[in-house]
Design brief:
This protein is α/β, with parallel strands linked by helices and 452 residues long. The chain contains 15 helices and 15 strands. β12 and β13 form a beta hairpin. α9 packs parallel to α15 and α14 packs parallel to α15.
Length: 452
Amino acid sequence: MSKLYNYLLRFILNCPEQENEILPKIAYGSTPLTNHSTHEEEFSNYAVVIRTSDFFTKNYGCKNSLPTLPLPIIENTPFFYGTSQIEKRGNTIIINADLIASAFVLLTRYEEWVQPDCRDEHGRFLAKHSIAYKGGFLHRPIIDEYGVLLRKCLREVGIEVPEPQQQFSKIYLTHDVDFLTRYGSFRGFCGAVWRTLKSGKNEITPAIKSLHNPQNDPFFTFPWILRKNAELASRTSATGKTETLFFLKSKKYRLLSGVEAHHDRPFYSLTSKAARQLISLLKKSGATIGLHTSYASSEKPEFIAAEKQSLEKQCNTNITCNRNHFLRSKNPTDMDFLLQNNILHDFTLGYADCAGFRLGTCRPVQYINVETKEVSDLILHPLLVMDCTLSNKRYMNLNENEAFDYTKLLIDAVKKYNGEIVLLWHNQVFSETEKYNHRELYCKILEYIAAI
């Protein structure tokens, strides 16, 4: 457990250059962070003590271990266990709010683990069921706010610790390729014919043009995306600060019932003309290619290995990044399957129904297995905003101006706490035939990122 507590404390502290010097001056109640026990009478040996609650020792893994609303507040920030009292005894500050347990609950998705039946039709835990949403702080990275409090307490007892720079540590512009083209398959062409006959609006001509050259297809917006992303990259100060990622689907599979996983449609071949053109474009641009694990793989995780192998073969590159289709991370411990397949970075963890800080932070964090409490090498990059989350009537249902304002609010928080921006826009929403103007919204968001 000491390894876990050390990691959580280091994450909250967020002062990597000085942590080896500062950590021995901080204690977590009666739980050792060093090689000796920390009892009440020993608190004076430390600059700051975070008092433990009974979270890890009483009813762990049970639903009744979850915090109840309204949550207590410390320094205007909600926390889950303990009290809001801050004591000062001589040169020691004692924080009675259990910030370690609070951070653990958010970073591990503990509330999802203890409520396995609280899922939507896709097996997803939704924002509306979360403590953060119900408590009204999903738009705030409260673990990063804990860091502000901890560093403030350290300074009050004479330990100089700097605040992180208010800038973006990284900008990830990510795109899931669910639809490679609109008309580039037999099914897509037949759909064009059927809609032409039904509505009288000619879709046959653009479908034929698409078959001749995929770059004529309305969903083949990849050159436009790469150009816009490159414009932002050229305006960011640090080399490598902005990275473009495209998550591609791989093989199609059938579930145990033998029924096709229709949520994985449309299926596309990585050997098709359109896919080959896309892969070539991505390689020339320097974009990163990641795996878009199938909807079906959530039922049959052994599919992940074959999907990754197929994508690596067709792209002739090592795949280390992943995002689940439909953001379908059903259970927190499913991340173990990514580790088993040498996936080192995951970009899945945002809520589908409401944008915000699902993990309570805007910074990348190592995956912690909620059952074993082990800290792994898999890096979770919290997803900030997804296009359909903002615009879909079943989700936030915001118009373009409202969506821009809400996204700005989140971006401001990321910059304040030196976090990562992870945006997700699908290529098909940039089609000029779309009624919701995601092109203009996306450009406004990139311009805002470049300007602040």
